[in-house]
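[step 3/7] inverse_fold.run input=structure_tokens len=362
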């Protein structure tokens, strides 16, 4: 019996990676959907109804107003046009390409978001009291909640900028997350609406930044990153609203989590100290995925662990399917990447230890 060729194995790995990403997204949506009504009710409880709705908590009011201002479509378009004008004035062809790609991503995101809004016809939070979805074609302004247009556009532009300008990438994603949060605090959308916008925006950004002939690879990459982001959002919401599981189940989850995080750090230490060229990518990927899985286990939630587990599997399968060598990095880039990774792990542990169950809407 003839063994499958390398290209066939890569194709199988890629298909499996897409499937794993989709499963992770489905679990994340299922998990975040549990928070739709509780968060909506909490936002209503801290909102006073004047001639206009006003949040009574200052930081929430600031986030709501500022995020709404940033995420408006014409302002995001203006950012792209300013980049285009600057690229033309200072003769920066790379920036010109980025500006055009951000406009394309914004256009793709707008088409997808507006089409889904009216095909799904989900009521806005102010019209919903039982969490029901109205799955019907509708052009009414109050039946266009899913997905969030502001979130979709913000993540589309942010994804393009993050891919092309890695130094400001984290800032762009944080701003997009800020816009998404503002839509929930404003009472305009449910958490699943902004999560859907995030997924569509990331996909739009990846499609816009890849050659048309590579559309399959760009969708695969977009799904993988969207799955990672959605799993992280679900995990954060779960930790902030739930206490640690008690009893033997909780102990087993914590033991698994600590073991995976420590194992990932140990592999990372080997990666730092020895700096081997052979297998360097394997060590880097394995350690990061182990730490992510361990942090998910520390939430003591089977749903979170499943979501993150499938997202990690998608990353692992993608690495197998691509089978490409790790690009050489300058010491500065390597230091920044490792610092960001350690900082993220430290922040996650801090949230797991000090911020469990702090949200009062459960």
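[step 3/7] decode complete -> sequence:
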């Amino acid at each position: 019996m003839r063994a499958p060729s390398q290209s066939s194995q890569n194709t199988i790995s890629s298909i499996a990676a897409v499937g794993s990403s989709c499963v992770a997204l489905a679990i994340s949506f299922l998990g975040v959907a549990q928070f739709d009504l509780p968060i909506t009710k909490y936002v209503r409880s801290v909102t006073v109804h004047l001639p206009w709705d006003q949040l009574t908590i200052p930081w929430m009011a600031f986030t709501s107003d500022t995020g709404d201002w940033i995420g408006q479509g014409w302002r995001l378009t203006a950012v792209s046009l300013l980049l285009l004008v600057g690229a033309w004035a200072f003769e920066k062809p790379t920036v010109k390409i980025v500006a055009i790609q951000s406009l394309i991503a914004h256009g793709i995101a707008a088409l997808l978001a507006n089409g889904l809004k009216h095909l799904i016809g989900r009521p806005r939070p102010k019209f919903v009291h039982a969490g029901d979805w109205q799955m019907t074609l509708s052009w009414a302004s109050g039946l266009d909640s899913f997905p969030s247009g502001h979130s979709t556009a913000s993540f589309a532009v942010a994804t393009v900028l993050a891919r092309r300008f890695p130094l400001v990438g984290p800032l762009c994603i944080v701003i997009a997350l800020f816009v998404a949060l503002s839509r929930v605090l404003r009472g305009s959308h449910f958490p699943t609406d902004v999560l859907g916008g995030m997924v569509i925006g990331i996909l739009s950004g990846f499609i816009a930044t890849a050659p048309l002939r590579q559309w399959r690879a760009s969708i695969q990459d977009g799904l993988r990153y969207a799955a990672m982001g959605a799993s992280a959002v679900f995990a954060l919401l779960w930790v902030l609203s739930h206490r640690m599981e008690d009893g033997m189940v909780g102990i087993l989850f914590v033991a698994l989590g600590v073991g995976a995080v420590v194992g990932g750090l140990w592999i990372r230490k080997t990666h730092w100290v020895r700096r081997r060229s052979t297998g360097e990518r394997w060590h880097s990927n394995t350690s990061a995925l182990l730490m992510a899985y361990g942090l998910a286990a520390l939430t003591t939630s089977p749903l979170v662990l499943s979501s993150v587990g499938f997202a990690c599997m998608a990353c692992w399968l993608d690495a197998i399917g691509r089978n490409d060598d790790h690009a050489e990095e300058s010491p500065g880039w390597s230091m920044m990447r490792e610092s960001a990774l350690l900082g993220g792990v430290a922040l996650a542990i801090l949230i797991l230890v000090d911020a469990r169950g702090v949200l009062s809407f459960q």
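[step 4/7] annotate
The chain has 13 helices and two strands.
The radius of gyration is 21 Å.
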